[in-house]
Amino acid sequence: MRRHGIRHLPVVAAGNLVGILSLRDLHLLETLREVDPEKVTVDEAMTRSPYSVEPGAAVEQVARILADNKWGSAVVVDGGKVVGMFTTTDALKVLGRLLKNERLRAARVRRLRRKRQGLAD
User: Fold this and answer.
1) CA nearest 76: which of 97, 94, 50, 42?
2) In the structure, what pLDDT confidence band is assigned to residue 75 with cuts at 50, 70 and 90?
């Protein structure tokens, strides 16, 4: 996972989402003295019943739930099939776009006000 820059992997069995394995899970295993990480199975290491959402879920709500619970991701499931992951990184990208758009909108409004007042840009 580290080598490929993957922080969260959904775990599927018989076509159904059964868990999620995160880098945090793996790090925890590596810190336990009495556990050999090479012998631990995915089933033992994963978090069961991960937070999942449908593709049409509102980003605002999903991001709030992730933040409130300090979770790093939501598994996106459509018709029972895993179709993607939504991570806190994705949420930050959306926030960045929203902030940029708001900054641009505010600049347009300022220019229009100045123009109406007969002031130069």
Assistant:
1) 50
2) very high
Place of tokens 């840009």: 121
Q: Domain containing 93: what range?
A: 8-116
pTM of the model: 0.80
CA atoms within 13 A on the CB side of 5: 1
Determine the angle formed by the axes of helices 59-69 and 88-116, rounding to 10 degrees.
130
Residue 3 belongs to some domain of the structure: no
Average pLDDT over residues 46-74: 96
Contact 26/1 with Cβ under 8 angstroms?
Answer: yes
- Give the ranges where the chain is alpha helix by DSSP (H): 23-31, 42-45, 59-69, 88-116
* Number of domain units in the chain: 1
* Placement of tokens 């989402």 in the chain: 17
d(CA 91, CA 21): 20
Q: 82 near 76, Cβ under 8 Å?
A: yes
Q: State yes or no: pLDDT of 120 exceeds 70.
A: no
Q: Is the pLDDT of residue 118 over 90?
A: no
